[in-house]
Design goal:
The complex is a heterodimer of chains A (310) and B (385). Chain A has 310 residues and is an all-alpha fold. Chain A contains twelve helices and two strands, in the order ααααβαβααααααα. With 385 residues, chain B is mainly alpha-helical. Classes of the chains: A mainly alpha (310), B mainly alpha (385). Chains A and B meet through helix 4, helix 10 and helix 12 of A and helix 6, helix 13 and helix 15 of B.
């Protein structure tokens, strides 16, 4: 039974779908990395993803235009991000709890809109794989890396761009300064609230995009609560990756590979209870948190509201 | 001086009313949402009220729905007062229900008077275990409890799915081809006694009694004092000789225990068996999250959480009627609860502002005409909201 896993076709399948399944994690956790680096814990990611997933699906379903779906999802995520920014920056609300509030809002709202506007589960034809000329013809690697859809390529590109912005630009320096020592940043003339508004709303936008990648690129359906905790894992991945984009990507890949393995174990009917297989990523998250939290220090000002003159 | 005292009373009153204003504001946004969905908000809220309070049965259902919210909310009061954010109510409730149910299934012949208390205790312990793990992880390994409790929720769901489709499955279902993942019905003598001839059961009374107990725990015992001290200022507590890590474990452990008890009460009082649709909500009805909403609304005060749970129980029961009358899916209530959380947490800023002003005023009046009779203590120190 187990040896069925070790044929070339299955291994390629596991790796290719692992790369693909990392997409929603990547968008959401890179967005979360940005906002946490500036000192804001956004726990509403799951809700933003759900609303993004619904919006992308609905717009694509009614207009047939995938890119319009993506844009709409990003816009909805942006609005949610702005609301989160207002509540945590201007009203200085407790970030963890208000994030749970936004999660519940997104959960209920996406379900409500789904029932009201669609009613039943439907499908769309989502983004198709783009075979990159020459590279996709390479043996094994071609199938794993270079035969994916555009949102998958975009997610990995985003990791590199975010790394560049954080480490090689003044903006990145400002984001990190605001997250480490808002008082110092403020005294140097950096607007703490403007930077945080930027990161939290971009984070929301990316969460919306993460939702879209689920509903119109990976699964091509929308269902109630279809993210089922994925957004929360994305937040955990940021801790796991120690707030560094490429390490976060490593965590996302690890998780999606485990997930992909779990799916193939079920497909091949290998006798491991599927409940335990589904449980694996969550257990792994906790273990990963235990291991990594000891090593890396979070941004000093994380979850702390900033008020001038204090 | 007299004027200062008056404004002091007024501003405390305003503080106590904050969640009410915040909820009204959230309901206002909810009304706009309903309008956009093409429903008449007045008609909708009318249906909601009638569904929740319209008859003895409706009222009993509201109390039954409020019971797990109150129990979980009590746990939330303990953990949030200790500055530990427990989002794991869903998982803790499931594990508590599983342990209590397993005991009930193992001894079907035992008398109810023995089994019921034992099952409730086992549910309490099951929840304590599920809360204690993330508590220990936070205290000794510095793992963010929000994340670990969420992961523990997901693990509990899979554990439930596994147990109900395997080791704990109803023998009748096990003999069938298409097996429904559910346990056998618990022996009839284990049913929690009904209080009046409706669905209202003993669990509601247990919850109210425990609310008073938690009030005493938090404000009349050393354990409660320590948990609150750590919640307000861990550094000062450490200097005062309090074992901070231990209080963190206790806070989450107790919080989980109440959620576990909620699970046991739900099975023995309402469902009488466990059944799963594969999701957490299928069993909990999101009580793990709604309990947080209720506790926040009750200003993290055990006694304040009683009316708050009743209110949100009413919203949940009324939502079904709302769905039938104005054709708005009951999911609207989840969205609305989310808004209530956001609005209530955001409104805290007004309390903080007034508190600061009170302290400054006190200092000014002190410098002008000697020390004032009593400098107002910061909120959260005393039990009265």
């Amino acid at each position: 039974m187990i040896d069925q896993l070790f044929t070339e076709a299955v291994l390629v399948g596991i790796l290719a779908s692992g790369i693909r399944l990392a997409t929603p994690y990547l968008y959401a956790s890179i967005g979360e990395t940005l906002s946490q680096r500036s000192g804001v814990l956004n726990l509403g990611v799951e809700g933003q993803m759900l609303l993004g997933a619904f919006t992308a699906f609905y717009i694509t379903f009614t207009t047939g235009n995938l890119w319009l779906g993506v844009l709409a999802a990003m816009f909805v995520g942006l609005l949610m991000g702005l609301a989160m920014a207002f509540v945590t920056i201007n009203l200085q609300a407790e970030q963890g709890i208000s994030g749970i509030g936004f999660y519940l809002f997104g959960l209920g709202m996406s379900d409500l809109l789904f029932q009201k506007m669609l009613g039943t589960v439907a499908t769309v034809s989502g983004f198709r794989p783009i075979h990159i000329p020459w590279l996709s013809d390479l043996p094994i690697i071609g199938k794993i890396l270079f035969s994916q859809n555009i949102l998958v390529y975009g997610a990995y590109l985003l990791v590199a761009v975010t790394w560049f912005v954080l480490n090689k630009t003044t903006l990145g320096l400002k984001i990190k300064a605001v997250g480490e020592s808002p008082q110092a940043a403020d005294s140097l003339g950096v607007s703490v609230s403007r930077i945080r508004y930027l990161t939290v709303s971009v984070g929301g936008m990316l969460s919306g995009l993460a939702g879209a990648s689920l509903s119109i690129a990976l699964l091509n359906v929308f269902q109630q609560n279809m993210t089922s905790g994925l957004g929360f894992i994305a937040v955990a991945l940021v801790y796991f990756g120690g707030w560094r984009p490429f390490a976060v990507m490593g965590g996302a890949l690890l998780f999606s590979m485990v997930n992909s393995l779990q799916l193939w174990v079920q497909v091949l009917n290998i006798p491991i209870p599927s409940d335990f297989a589904v449980m694996m990523p969550y257990v792994l998250t906790i273990i990963a948190l235990v291991i990594t939290v000891q090593r890396v220090r979070p941004p000093s000002a994380l979850t702390k509201p900033f008020e001038r003159g204090h | 001086m007299e004027k200062w005292r008056q404004s002091e009373t007024v501003s405390r009153l305003l503080d106590a009313m904050l969640p009410v204003y915040a909820t009204l504001a959230a309901l206002g946004v909810g009304a706009v949402m309903l309008l956009l969905l093409g429903a008449n908000p007045l008609e909708a809220f009318g249906a909601l009220l009638e569904g929740a309070f319209g008859s003895t049965n409706a009222l009993a259902d509201t109390v039954v729905k409020a019971t797990p919210l109150l129990l979980i909310g009590l746990g939330i009061c303990i953990s949030f007062r200790g500055n530990v954010i427990n989002i794991g109510g869903e998982g803790q409730m499931i594990v508590g229900a599983l342990t209590a149910t397993a005991l009930g299934l193992a001894f079907p012949e035992s008398p109810g008077i023995v089994m019921i208390p034992l099952a409730m205790i086992l549910g309490f312990l099951g929840g304590a275990l599920w809360g204690g793990i993330p508590g220990a992880l936070k205290a000794y390994f510095n793992v963010n409890e929000i994340l670990s409790t969420i992961m523990m929720n997901a693990i509990a769901v899979q554990l439930m799915n596994f147990l109900l489709s395997g080791p704990m499955i109803d023998p009748i279902q096990a003999a069938r081809d298409s097996q429904i993942p559910q346990t056998a019905r618990l022996a009839a003598q284990f049913d929690l006694p009904r209080l009046i001839p409706t669905r209202l059961h003993l669990g509601a009374l247990i919850a109210v009694v425990l609310a008073v107990a938690v009030y005493f725990l938090l404000w009349r015992t050393t354990l409660g004092y320590r948990i609150r001290a750590v919640g307000q200022n861990p550094h000062a507590s450490r200097y005062a000789g309090i074992d901070v890590k231990r209080q963190i474990v206790f806070a989450l452990l107790l919080s989980g225990a109440f959620a576990g008890l909620a699970g046991a009460v739900q099975v023995f009082g309402v469902n009488h068996r466990m059944i799963t649709d594969g999701s957490a909500t299928g069993f909990t009805g999101s009580a793990g999250f709604n309990g947080i909403v209720a506790a926040l609304f009750g200003q993290l005060h055990p006694l304040g959480t009683i009316p708050a749970s009743f209110l949100f129980g009413a919203l949940l029961v009324g939502a079904n009627k709302l769905q039938r009358v104005v054709q708005v899916p009951s999911a609207v209530i989840i969205a609305l609860n989310g808004l209530v959380v956001v609005f209530v947490v955001s409104s805290e800023i007004f309390r903080r502002r007034r508190e600061q002003k009170r302290l400054t005023d006190a200092m000014i009046s002190q410098s002008e005409d000697g020390p004032p009779p009593d400098i107002p203590a910061p909120a959260n120190v005393e039990g009265t909201p």
